[in-house]
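TA notes, week 10

Several of you asked for a full example with nothing omitted. So below is the full record: structure tokens for the whole chain, then the designed sequence directly under it. When grading your own attempts, check the secondary structure regions first.
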């Protein structure tokens, strides 16, 4: 696939432009309603599908199918990521009006980290043919492990990243609006919102370790790998607010995701020296696995409505009072004339 440098810059410009629009649209802290989340979800999915249609038209059916296979894998794995975010936000009792800010910077960090992972993966695949076997074995092992641990969930309190953060970073015990950092009594301190952001970033890196090898199983084109990841990730914030209260209904989704990882692991293992499974077949299998797990889940939980996760009886953090907010000092200290001289 011949991709010019200007096309890379054009795609990056499009992504940055969409992030800027999203940040401007949500510049004021407010609770994202289901209707608003649904509208934004439609926007992001439309953009992702439209880009895939352009790839199909400009570069042919094979590359178009590779993009859609990768996009579907990333979008499906992202749903599991959304459920982990719901667990984190519930455990830390993050006010709903502040959650979008965390997710915005979380997605921005995810794009950067995944770009690095994709670049590294592309170099490894181009330099070492045997890396396909390693990726395939990893995907098979991850899929089997996911099936075995399908009923297990993240426990934020046991997170090593959170423990390290608390040990080395001074932190207040209260949310101070949408601030990640505050200065109090001359001391620069992190708020719990920054700790939540760190945990969100760490969990996304863990998910990326699974998803990046999975998408390399359906395409070796770095441009398609990156764009499928990017357009799938951009809609995660809206997807979270749309699906966070429906976690209990997707009872078979994790099994479907695990089977997808096993399938792409088998595909990657075979394509090296044995047989290349056509992209059309891979796209069909992935669609059936994900779509089937969603349909079966919704049928098994028919009649159940939206239900938020149960928050802890004693949340680890609180919301700062108006008096505490009034006592905050500017983050940047002004240098006194004596210091300047």
């Amino acid at each position: 696939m011949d991709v010019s440098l200007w096309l890379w810059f054009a795609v990056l410009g499009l992504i940055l432009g969409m992030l800027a629009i999203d940040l401007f649209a949500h510049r004021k802290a407010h609770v994202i309603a289901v209707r608003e989340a649904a509208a934004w979800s439609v926007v992001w999915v439309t953009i992702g599908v439209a880009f895939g249609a352009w790839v199909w038209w400009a570069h042919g059916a094979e590359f178009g199918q590779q993009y859609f296979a990768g996009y579907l894998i990333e979008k499906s794995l992202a749903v599991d990521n959304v459920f982990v975010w719901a667990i984190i936000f519930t455990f830390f009792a993050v006010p709903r009006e502040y959650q979008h800010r965390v997710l915005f910077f979380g997605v921005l960090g995810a794009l950067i980290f995944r770009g690095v992972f994709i670049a590294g993966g592309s170099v490894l695949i181009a330099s070492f043919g045997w890396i396909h076997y390693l990726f395939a074995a990893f995907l098979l092992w991850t899929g089997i492990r996911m099936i075995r641990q399908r009923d297990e969930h993240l426990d934020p309190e046991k997170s090593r990243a959170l423990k390290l953060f608390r040990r080395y970073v001074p932190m207040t015990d209260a949310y101070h609006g949408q601030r990640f950092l505050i200065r109090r009594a001359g001391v620069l301190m992190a708020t719990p919102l920054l700790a939540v952001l760190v945990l969100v970033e760490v969990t996304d890196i863990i998910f990326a370790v699974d998803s990046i090898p999975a998408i390399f199983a359906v395409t070796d084109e770095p441009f398609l790998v990156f764009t499928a990841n990017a357009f799938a990730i951009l809609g995660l914030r809206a997807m979270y607010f749309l699906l966070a209260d429906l976690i209990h209904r997707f009872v078979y989704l994790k099994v479907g995701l695990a089977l997808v990882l096993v399938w792409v692991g088998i595909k990657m293992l075979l394509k090296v020296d044995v047989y290349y499974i056509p992209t059309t077949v891979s796209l069909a299998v992935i669609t059936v696995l994900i779509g089937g797990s969603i349909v079966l889940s919704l049928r098994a939980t028919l009649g159940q409505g939206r239900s938020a996760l149960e928050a802890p009886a004693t949340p680890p953090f609180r919301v700062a009072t108006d008096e505490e907010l009034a006592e905050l000092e500017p983050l940047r200290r002004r240098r006194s004339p004596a210091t300047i001289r």
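The first strand starts at residue 174 and ends at 175. Use that as a sanity check on your answer.
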